[in-house]
Give the backbone structure.
Amino acid sequence: MTEFTLIFRLNDIADFKPSPEQMQERMSWLAGIAAQNKLADKGNTLLPTSGSAKTVKAVNVVIDGPYTEIKEFIVGYVIVKAEDIDEAVAMAKENPIFKIGGSVEVREILKRD
């Protein structure tokens, strides 16, 4: 099995604080993957709020936030195990983030051993 990172993006900072029902839906999605023994890492939430992130650029330039120049911002990730990227995409398609206008980027992990 290959590992893939599912990277979650949102367009609106207001969607970062989900309702209890939305949290339950997300946890159910994650539990479904874990029940198939395809959850490699439950991942983490990445805070998109002011003061919680900086971006370091060339020539020692440091700017506030991870998203000052992009429309979407990353809010978290999980790592799943799948036979191929199509299976990982199928898992991503079931995530409830799409109900609030978010997206999921699926990236294969190249492990360094």
